[in-house]
């Protein structure tokens, strides 16, 4: 997409580009630096919007108007929903289409009702990533990256986008339809929070956090806690490296009384234990007389230097430019000063942004929360000046100011630092490449103390794995990964969203939102029940995580680039849409007013989609390539003939589905030495067959379960896949990994990466697997797997 098209503003639209004369950024193009809702209020400054788009780029950026509405709804403070509703109703009248404003407003209000912690800092980025993940109408990751790079090179081209043009119904629907879809996906605020927790397990998303006090004696443990937590690992891993090079004084000492020895140390006043031994040699009368007349001699012990108790105040810049790596370095530097082994002075920390906010960095949770703080300002001169204008009654204070090196080029910030150089003791600058510079103000002059270059790539090379709650003993909190496909085919699911015949091949859209490919053997018309496992075949996964709702009619085809295109017709919503399953590009049209009869069906024919009825004179044509288009054309009798043939062929798949065992609760070995999978034992019922049959024997060896992995005491593993495959990994490395389908009461197969035996249902159409009998496969692999576990137990 062209840069100007993405950022294009429209006449009478709900947002527009504006210029804030008082704001300057580092692009050199200061016009059109603010997006606002006309006569309602500001949405966000351009630098912040660009940073948000950068965060969303890896998953593809959403339509600009949709993003702006979400950003406005997640603002802190008052949000004028009446203003938004006014513009949407006005656009609905102009477009002469139903925008489903009630759904849009419900979704925006649910967003606004989220707690403050969900709408700030990194949590807000996580919220946006969750909402727009796999959303409709978004650009691909590659296109998004190209667009942002183009903006970075020539931001002034936005002047063309700021020139308003007439809006078309297509652009209105593109910006608003996604919010209708999001309202269906997230009908409540709680569902949004739940989705955020599922998107990535974040500790700060919990409603309550149990806090543990960190004592002074556990500073070392606190640094280790930072290192072990994935969210603070980057900060924690830098602290000890900073300690090793830090040269700023940790204690300030006053001379006190420091006698140098000899006669000068003698005194006629003191305590008994300090009296010279020679005084005790006097006669009693003389001794008492000398004591009474203060003539006895005492030695004055050396008095150590007095510690000058002072207080440190650390100010951390939280402006937009101090985001990312510089911010990580800033917090690492602050904690390094606070928690230094030789430091025992009191320390206060403030974040400096729009205002000065006191914070605490004594707990891991606090560090996580404050790392997420970002102020929507480009520089912090006003807040810093306000800090120095306030009265600080502390006897002795040292002020540290930590900021990005690039911020020092700002004239306003330079002025504030220079005017308060007598009170600002230390200036610390950070950079994106890991460089720290420490400066000290002394007698009105700034002196460079030291430079520390941190090898970020080395220090951040091995981040810890994220842990699930309640599983602290495990190194990973996620399920064991399973491959997209196996050497054998998956069982075809009984329940399907849709089935297709395209160019002679059968495809299935499964309930798990996957596109599957399957096929039939040549001897289809053999109706013997047992031969069903030789006639039908399982399936392979082509595409996963398809963003589609299981409603309406579907048709499948390929475009000129050989990408699968899924067309969906929702008659009840008067909506036709297309989704590129490879690039995820989505387009749709509202068919309100077209008066399409209820008996029209969606089909594919001759490189096009059609909404048609065999008896109608006029039907509707939908294109495959490019954005969706819809036009009335004359009916072609060949479409009906082709559709009849397709229906006959599709009926052949009617009995191809097999019930898949996907609720795994116990795996073990029973008293008959058979392997038990969720109350079903692997057994031979007929010759040359393997099946899962109900287990009637006690389990004598059970495997321990974690997520989808079951581990026996010897280390052998069974990994489950709810799509219908079990993976067996023996602790005996001489036994190769093998696979068995997990289907109830069906003939199974057993395969390694080189051999296959059992029901041909699971045999791929083209394979290099060596064929063997199921008896041989069981004796070669399954029985040794079981014996290895039994021998270890014995």
Reconstruct the topology from this structure:
Layout: H1 3-6, E1 16-18, E2 34-37, E3 41-45, H2 46-56, H3 64-73, H4 81-95, H5 101-112, H6 121-132, H7 141-153, H8 158-161, H9 169-185, H10 189-199, H11 219-228, H12 233-245, E4 253-254, E5 266-267, H13 284-292, E6 298-299, E7 306-307, E8 311-317, H14 325-338, E9 346-352, E10 356-359, H15 364-371, H16 381-389, E11 397-404, H17 411-419, E12 424-430, E13 435-442, E14 445-453, H18 456-459, E15 496-502, E16 505-510, E17 515-520, H19 532-535, E18 536-543, E19 553-558, E20 564-570, E21 575-580, E22 586-590, E23 601-605, E24 608-612, E25 618-622, E26 630-634, H20 637-650, E27 667-670, E28 675-677, E29 680-683, E30 691-694, E31 699-702, E32 704-706, E33 709-711, E34 717-721, E35 725-729, E36 738-741, E37 749-751, E38 755-758, E39 770-771, H21 774-793
Could you explain the architecture of this structure?
Helix content is 28%, strand content 24%. The strands form ten sheets. The protein has a seven-stranded mixed beta sheet with strand order 10-9-8-11-12-13-14. It has a five-stranded antiparallel beta sheet with strand order 30-29-28-27-31, covered by helices on one side. The chain folds into five domains: 3-205, no CATH class; 219-251 and 307-459, Rossmann fold, CATH 3.40.50; 259-302, no CATH class; 496-653, no CATH class; 667-793, no CATH class. The chain contains 21 helices and 39 strands. The two termini are 67 Å apart. Helix 5 packs across helix 9.
């Amino acid at each position: 997409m062209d840069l100007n098209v993405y950022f294009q503003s429209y006449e009478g639209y709900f947002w527009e580009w504006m210029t804030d004369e008082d704001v300057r950024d580092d692009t050199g193009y200061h016009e059109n630096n603010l997006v606002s809702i006309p006569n309602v209020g500001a949405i966000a400054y351009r630098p912040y919007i660009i940073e948000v788009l950068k965060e969303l780029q890896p998953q593809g950026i959403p339509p600009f108007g949709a993003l702006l509405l979400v950003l406005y709804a997640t603002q802190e403070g008052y949000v004028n929903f009446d203003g938004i509703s006014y513009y949407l109703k006005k656009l609905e009248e102009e477009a002469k289409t139903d925008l489903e404003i009630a759904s849009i407003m419900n979704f925006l209000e649910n967003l606004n009702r989220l707690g403050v912690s969900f709408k700030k800092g990194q949590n807000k980025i996580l919220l946006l990533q969750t909402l727009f993940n796999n959303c409709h109408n978004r650009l691909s990751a590659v296109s998004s990256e190209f667009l942002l790079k183009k903006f970075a090179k020539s931001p002034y081209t936005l002047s063309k986008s700021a020139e308003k043009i007439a809006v078309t119904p297509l652009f209105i629907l593109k910006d608003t339809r996604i919010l209708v879809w999001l309202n269906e996906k997230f009908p409540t605020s709680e569902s949004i929070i739940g989705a955020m927790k599922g998107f990535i397990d974040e500790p700060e998303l919990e409603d309550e956090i149990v806090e543990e006090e960190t004592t002074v004696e556990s500073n070392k443990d606190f640094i280790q806690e930072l290192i072990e937590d994935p969210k603070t690992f980057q900060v924690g891993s830098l602290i000890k490296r900073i300690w090793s090079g830090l040269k700023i004084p940790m204690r300030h000492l006053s001379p006190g009384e420091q006698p140098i020895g000899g006669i000068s140390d003698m005194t006629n006043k003191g305590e008994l234990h300090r009296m010279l031994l020679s005084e005790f040699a006097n006669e009693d009368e003389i001794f008492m007389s000398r004591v009474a007349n203060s003539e006895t001699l005492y030695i004055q012990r050396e008095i150590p230097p007095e510690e000058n108790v002072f207080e440190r105040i650390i100010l951390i810049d939280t402006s937009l430019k101090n985001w990312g790596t510089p911010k990580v370095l800033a917090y690492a530097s602050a904690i390094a000063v606070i928690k230094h082994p030789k430091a025992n002075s009191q320390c206060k920390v403030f974040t400096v942004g729009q205002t000065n906010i006191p914070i605490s960095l004594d707990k891991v949770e606090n560090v996580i929360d404050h790392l997420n703080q970002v102020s929507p300002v480009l520089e912090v001169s006003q807040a810093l000046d306000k800090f120095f204008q306030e009265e600080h009654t502390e006897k002795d204070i040292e002020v540290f100011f930590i900021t990005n090196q690039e911020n020092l080029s700002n004239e306003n910030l330079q002025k504030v630092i220079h005017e308060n150089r007598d009170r600002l003791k230390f200036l610390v600058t950070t950079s994106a490449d890991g460089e720290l510079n420490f400066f000290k103000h002394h007698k009105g002059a700034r002196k460079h103390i030291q430079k520390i270059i941190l090898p970020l790539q080395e220090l951040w090379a091995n981040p810890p794995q994220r842990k699930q709650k309640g599983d602290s003993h495990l190194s990973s909190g996620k399920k064991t990964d399973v491959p997209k496909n196996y050497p054998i085919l998956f069982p075809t699911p009984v329940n399907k969203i849709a089935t297709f015949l395209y160019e002679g091949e059968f495809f299935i859209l499964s309930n798990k939102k996957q596109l599957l490919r399957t096929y039939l053997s040549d001897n289809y018309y053999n109706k013997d029940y047992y031969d069903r496992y030789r006639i039908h075949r399982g399936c392979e996964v082509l595409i996963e995580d398809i963003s589609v709702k299981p409603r309406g009619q579907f048709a499948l085809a390929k475009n000129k680039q050989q990408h699968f295109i899924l067309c969906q017709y929702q008659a009840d919503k008067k909506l036709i849409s297309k989704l590129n399953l490879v690039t995820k590009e989505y387009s749709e049209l509202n068919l309100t007013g077209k008066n399409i009869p209820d008996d029209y069906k969606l089909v594919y024919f001759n490189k096009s989609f059609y909404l048609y009825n065999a008896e109608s004179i006029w039907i509707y044509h939908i294109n495959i390539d490019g954005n969706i288009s819809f036009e009335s054309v004359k009916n072609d009798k060949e479409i009906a003939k082709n559709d009849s043939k397709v229906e006959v062929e599709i009926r052949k798949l009617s009995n191809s589905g097999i019930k898949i065992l996907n609720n795994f609760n116990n795996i073990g070995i029973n008293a008959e030495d058979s392997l038990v999978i969720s109350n079903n034992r692997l057994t031979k019922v007929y010759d040359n067959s393997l099946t899962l049959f109900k287990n009637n024997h006690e389990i004598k060896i059970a495997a321990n379960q974690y997520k989808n992995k079951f581990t026996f005491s010897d280390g052998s593993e069974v990994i489950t896949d709810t799509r219908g495959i079990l993976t067996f990994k023996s602790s005996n490395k001489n036994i190769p990994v093998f696979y068995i389908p997990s289907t109830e009461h069906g003939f199974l197969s057993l395969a390694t990466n080189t051999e296959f035996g059992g029901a041909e249902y699971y045999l791929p159409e083209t394979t290099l697997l060596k064929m063997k009998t199921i008896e041989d496969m069981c004796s070669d692999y399954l029985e040794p797997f079981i014996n290895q576990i039994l021998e270890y137990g014995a």
